[in-house]
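pls design
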């Protein structure tokens, strides 16, 4: 007679992606070089040749972010260095199970006389997504930074006339411990309906928030207002702190407006992956 094993009922837990990249730079005889590098899990960094400083391209090998995933990025641009951070492609926020959200935490530190460009490609929200994202940038007194976060709400080419989900985004930028910029927003439920309101998005399906911290910020203001057009706005928070918000009816329309702005601010040295 064969003994019968007791039946147990375990709660199924889907696999979750975890990824970490920690990167530090220093000034070397030939320019900016890697000082420290740690990468783990589904987050990787590759380093193509760059005309100025160092470029690090971040990769999410899991293919996107869904509920329960967690990604952490931490970077320190050492004194006198120039570092550009971008992504291989658009990040995707996939459908999540109820009660779960993907999390992306980014910490940027920029030392004296250093420049950091944070230039990820668009984050694409899928129907049913749940994503919580937070970026902190700490600048030394003489540091310079360009922080860009573009986002697309839904896949129009796939027939998503509207999407439901949840997105929470928070960007904190400080200089020598004093707050410079706090940009926080949250959308949940019927995101398409929320963006249709004239007081929120006016029917936009894509947007970008941009912060530029550099001594020439004031001199660039009028040029950026012209490039942004009627669906965008730019303001100075201080003589050397410029912020810009741009709305667009689609991801393609957003790029048409955004690329000239980024070319202007980077001197035409936007990472090649943005052109592909």
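designed seq:
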């Amino acid at each position: 007679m064969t003994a019968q094993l007791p039946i147990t009922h375990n709660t199924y837990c889907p696999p979750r992606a975890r990824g970490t990249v920690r990167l530090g730079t220093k000034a070397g005889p030939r320019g900016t070089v890697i000082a420290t590098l740690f990468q783990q899990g589904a987050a990787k960094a590759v380093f193509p040749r760059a005309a100025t400083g160092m470029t690090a391209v971040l990769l999410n090998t899991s293919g996107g972010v869904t509920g329960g995933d967690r990604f952490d990025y931490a970077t320190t641009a050492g004194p006198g260095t120039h570092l550009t951070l971008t992504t291989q492609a658009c990040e995707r926020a996939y459908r999540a199970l109820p009660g779960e959200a993907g999390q992306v935490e980014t910490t940027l530190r920029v030392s004296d006389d250093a420049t950091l460009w944070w230039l990820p490609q668009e984050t694409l929200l899928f129907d049913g997504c749940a994503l919580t994202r937070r970026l902190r940038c700490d600048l030394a007194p003489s540091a310079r930074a360009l922080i860009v976060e573009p986002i697309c709400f839904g896949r129009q080419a796939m027939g998503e006339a509207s999407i439901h989900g949840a997105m929470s985004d928070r960007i904190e930028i400080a200089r020598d411990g004093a707050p410079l910029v706090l940009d926080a927003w949250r959308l949940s439920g019927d995101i398409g309906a929320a963006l249709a309101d004239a007081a929120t998005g006016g029917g936009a399906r894509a947007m970008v928030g941009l912060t530029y911290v550099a001594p020439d910020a004031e001199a660039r203001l009028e040029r950026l207002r012209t490039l942004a057009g009627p669906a965008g706005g730019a303001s100075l928070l201080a003589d050397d702190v410029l912020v810009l918000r741009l709305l667009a009816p689609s991801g393609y329309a957003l790029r048409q407006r955004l690329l000239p702005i980024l070319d202007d601010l980077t001197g035409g040295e936007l990472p090649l992956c943005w052109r592909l």
